[in-house]
Amino acid sequence: MSGYAFHPEAFADLDEIWEYIAQDNSDAADRVLADIHSVLRNLAASPHIGHKRPDLTARPLRFHVVREYLIVYAPDEKPLWVVAVLHGRRNPRLMAAILHDRP
Length: 103
Prior knowledge:
By secondary structure, the chain is of the alpha+beta class. It has helices at residues 8-22, 26-45, 92-101, and strands at 4-6, 62-66, 69-74, 80-87. It has one domain (4-101): YaeB-like fold.
């Protein structure tokens, strides 16, 4: 068992990330997803190492950066609940809207 689970739309985020990178290099896409999963395993073991982003949400979510992506997760859920995986350069208002719509 991995120790983490995905909101259905967070799982779709991973698919979109892979598809986008794979257009140029599928091996690179595989490496990015492997890095994300590696960090998620670490977060499942130590969920409070991420940081809070009160500018994006009032919910008790944590954020952790992997490469240029921001993993958004609920640290107190078992298994760790991954709410979103977003590109870090997205507009903060768009990120806040995405998080608002994902329970």
